[in-house]
Amino acid sequence: MTRRRSMLWLQSAGCGGCTMSLLCAEAPGVLHALEGAGIDLLWHPALSAETGAEVRALLAGIEAGEIPLDILCVEGAVAKGPKGTGRYQMLSGTGRSMLDWVESLAPHAGHVLAVGSCAAFGGVTSAGGNPTDAVGLQYEGTHPGGVLPPEFRGAEGLPVVNIAGCPTHPDWVTETLLMLAGGDLTSEALDVYARPRFYADHLVHHACPKNEYYEYKASARALSEMGCMMEHLGCVGTQAVGDCNIRPWNGSGSCTRGGYPCVNCTAPEFEEPRHPFTETPKLAGIPVGLPTDMPKAWFMALASLSKAATPPRVGENATSDRVRVPPTLRKPPGA
Question: I need a labelling partner for 135 at 20 to 30 A (CA). Which of 93, 101, 106, 333 fits?
Answer without folding.
Answer: 93
